[in-house]
Amino acid sequence: MSALGSLTVVGLGPGPDRWLTPEVADVLASATDLVGYGPYLDRIPQSFHRRHGSDNRVELSRARLALDLAVSGRKVALVSGGDPGVFAMASALFEALESGDDPAWAEVPVRVCPGVSAMLAAAARVGAPLGHDFCVLSLSDNLKPWEVVLKRLRLAAEADFVIALYNPISKARPWQLGAALDTLRSMKDPATPVVLARAVGRHDEDITITTLADCDPATADMRTLVLIGSSQTRLLPRKGTDGLGDVWVYTPRSYTAEVP
Amino acid sequence: MSALGSLTVVGLGPGPDRWLTPEVADVLASATDLVGYGPYLDRIPQSFHRRHGSDNRVELSRARLALDLAVSGRKVALVSGGDPGVFAMASALFEALESGDDPAWAEVPVRVCPGVSAMLAAAARVGAPLGHDFCVLSLSDNLKPWEVVLKRLRLAAEADFVIALYNPISKARPWQLGAALDTLRSMKDPATPVVLARAVGRHDEDITITTLADCDPATADMRTLVLIGSSQTRLLPRKGTDGLGDVWVYTPRSYTAEVP
């Protein structure tokens, strides 16, 4: 029987190499096997790794494969975009471990390495919209009832959190973002700033700054991160030569609104 | 009059250099001036920078100094720990810009570079507690009424979000964490996992995994990030040799609880 390998869950950051931490670069350099969603693995330079790319939406089987490889003695990097702990592979890995389907899995040395998450990169790109209390939701109802999503959106609006939405829309979930925006429109100022940040940091990055009233769900796709302001989120004129538009979006540290 | 400089807001990540992005390393290497909280500047190797360290809780004057230096032609890095957009210097900078106290500030080229935030590093260290919908609050009532904090905690508990608390306690704010925990105890299962992650990634890192019932506020200080689970957050046995205890904390991607 071969010696036990290891399993490290890493995040590449949402965009280019300049957001990939030295820690993750080291893990990738010493891994024998890379397991992950194909487009993420494509961002890692060719080397002597064995690559195990897979389709989206098969996170659990990907986690099981990574554990099997580690049991067989391989040094495995399980690869997420962004941060692996935010709607990504780390939870899928622990779900597989909890299932205990193979008792050998429990012996694998596991480590999780943080990364720059898409929400942080999107926020930095447009200013500082997450500068005050905020919440983070996946809009996917594949793994939770849609009623839970709606309830959380209502409570988040009542709390006047800035709201970051992951997985806003896909071909299989075409109406959820529109329904979420309708719910928020019934509770929040129509002039609330909304940011649609698609593929932040990538060559095909596309950032739209709009309002809750004007936000068109068709502008978003599965690579879009949506940020919806609180009552305090505001726009400022932006001077610059980086082609990122003429406004900053930010939320002040102070909260001066009335408490309802 | 000298040529205009520039101002880049950066985050060092919460811990060691292995969490500092290449983008931020480049900014620091080419900056002429570093402005920030003294202990953060101490983490940057000595070089030819001019250093402008300052005490905690003077974010706005720090932002003004950075703008003044940039107007005078310096290439300024305004330094946060963690990510600069999460309860850190980016919002303070935009507050200064919005005040418009010096019209010259509006001409300064500004950029924000994301970093690994303390909550992501703390989460990775203990597993994947942020693997499902969550919210992020500062517990400081320096800049918002305490009633707003309490209201948000109640709504976050009702939404069954995982909760990340920044700035949980300080010498000037000794009772707030205890009051916040009492509020959450009145609404949540006493067995809910709680993580107190102090100085994550630093030489004096100290991580406590406990429950809502047993959590002692005196275990936390101003360098502690507090994570409070949802109804779904759970513990798993942890095997490993890294001295980080014998349990993982994680929140599954699926939400299977009843909708109240």
Automatic annotation (TrEMBL), chains A, B:
Give the metabolic or biological pathway.
Cofactor biosynthesis; adenosylcobalamin biosynthesis
Q: Cite the Tetrapyrrole methylase domain residue spans from the record.
A: 7-214
Gene Ontology MF terms:
methyltransferase activity
Q: Which UniProt keywords apply?
A: Cobalamin biosynthesis, Methyltransferase, S-adenosyl-L-methionine, Transferase
A Pfam family of the record is: TP_methylase
Q: Which NCBIfam families match?
A: cobJ_cbiH
What is the recorded name of this protein?
A: Precorrin-3 methyltransferase
